[in-house]
Amino acid sequence: MNEQIKEIALRLRGLRDMLNISIDEIATCCKVSAEEYEGYESGKNDIPIGVLENISKKYNIGLTALLFGDEPHMKSFCLTRAGQGTAMERTQAYKYQALASGFTGRKADPFIVSIEPDTEEKPIHLNSHSGQEMNYVLQGKMLLSVGGHELILNEGDSLYFDATLPHGMKALDGKTVKFLAVIL
């Protein structure tokens, strides 16, 4: 199991226990089955960013606290140098760099996301979360499925969408895709 996922799973369990929230209640909030949620807390299941976003709102804590176990402290600005974003690897295929994890009271969560090409022809894993999302392709080409529509985005293309719609991404042409994702 990925060490970061294990740490997030421990935080999820600890917070749920501390707040005296049942597995059924938090699973309903996340729009997943109790069994799937238990897989998140055990570290057996990858935890979609949308699920983490829903949990952070339910628990009234920042997404950064769930992801990295630390609350942000910067109030005026937060500088992130190239390649220095707080890294998180949810799976071998998806890698995230949080670009504003040190800023308290954020209205948006910006990430640089890298998706490795899929050597197998698996369907796109879809997830959803509250709010809105914007994706801007920095490098490569990706297939983005949102609300039943499949769109191909090339370098320089962007898409802004209702994040409550089921959505997912996939690298195309056998190459890694890198994009800016902003969750609002």
UniProtKB/TrEMBL annotation:
Organism field: Draconibacterium halophilum
CDD domains documented for this protein: cupin_XRE_C, HTH_XRE
Gene Ontology molecular function, alphabetical: DNA binding; DNA-binding transcription factor activity
Protein name: Cupin domain-containing protein
Highest taxon of the lineage: Bacteria
Keyword DNA-binding tagged: yes
A Pfam family this chain is assigned to: Cupin_2
Residues covered by the HTH cro/C1-type domain: 12-66
Keyword list, A-Z: DNA-binding
GO cellular component: cytosol
Keyword DNA-binding tagged: yes
